[in-house]
Amino acid sequence: AKADGRNTFRLFAEQMNAEVKDRKEMLADMREALDNNGFQLAFQPQVQLADQSIVGSEALLRWHHNDRGQVSPSRFIPVAEQGGLIVDLGEWVVGAACDQIGLFDKMGLPPIRIAVNISSVQFRRGNLVECTKSILDRTGVSPDRLEFEITESVVMTDVDKAIKTMQELDTIGVRLSMDDFGTGYSSLSYLRQFPIQKIKIDKSFVQNIEIEENSMEIVNAIIGLSRSMNITVVAEGVETEGQLAKLKEAGCEVVQGFYFGRPMAAQDFESWMGDWHKE
Ligand code: C2E
Ligand code: CA
Ligand code: CA
Ligand code: CA
Question: How far apart are alpha carbons 167 and 182 in whole angstroms?
C-alpha cells in the first residue's frame, strides 16, 4: 500500500511537471506567434430579432499551432494571463479589430459594431484606456464602433476601481457589454452603477432553456431587469429553432449563436454578410 501511494504520488508529480512544461512551451510559442502574425480573429454575427438585421459581431481570438493544430482560447488565454502575455495579446486584439473595422468599411459592409473580449488581467493591470485611445487615433475608427466585453468577476473584484475604468472608457465613447451574465457573483444592485449598454446572457442558460424551467426563469429575470435599465440583451449560444422561439417569447432583442452563424474568418464573414442581406 505504501508503494502504491508512492507510485500515485510520482505519477501525479509527473503529470504536474508535464503540465508546467506544456504551459511554458505554449507561452513561448504564443510570444512567437504574436511577433509573427500567428493570431487571427474570427467574427460571429449578432442578429437583431425585430428586423433580422446584423447589429454587430463578436471578434474571437484564433490560434493555429503547427503541432497542436487549432488551440482553443479557453486553453491559451489562461496561459497568456498567467505568463504575463495577455496585455500585449489583448492590445493586439483591439488593434486587429479596429484595423478590420476599417477594412470592412472599405469593402462596403454596413457599419456594424465589433466587440472584443477583455481579460480581467488586461482590464485591471494594463493601461487599457490610454492604449485604446491611441489605437483609435492610429486607426481613425470611431469609438462607438468598438465594444468591450467584460465579465462580472472582472468588475466585482474591485468595484470602485472597475467603475472608474468603465467610466473612462465610456467617456472616450467605447461601448461596454457585460459578458457571461448570470454565471458570476455580481450583485444586481451594482448593475445600475455600471455604464454598460449591453448584457449577454450566458450560453449555459440558453442551452437549458427548453429543458429546465429554472433557466427560463433566469432568462426572463435578466430580460426584465435589462429592460428596466434600458440595457440591450443579447442571448449567446443559440443553436436551435426551439431556443430561438423561447427567447423571442421572452422578449430578447439580439441573439448570437451557431443557429445563425459560426465565428468566421474576416473574408468568410464578409461574404456571409453579403448573402444575409440578399435573402
Ligand atoms: P465567450 O466570450 O463567452 O465567447 C463565446 C464562445 O462561445 C466562443 O468560444 C464562441 O465560439 C462560442 N459560441 C458561439 N456560439 C455558440 C453556440 O451556438 N454554441 C456553442 N456551444 N458555442 C458557441 P471560443 O471562441 O472558443 O472562445 C472561448 C472563450 O475564450 C470566450 O468565451 C472568451 O472568454 C475567451 N476568448 C476568446 N477570444 C478572446 C480574446 O480575444 N480575448 C480574451 N481575453 N478572451 C477571449
Ligand atoms: Ca464574449
Ligand atoms: Ca460569453
Ligand atoms: Ca464564457
Answer: 22
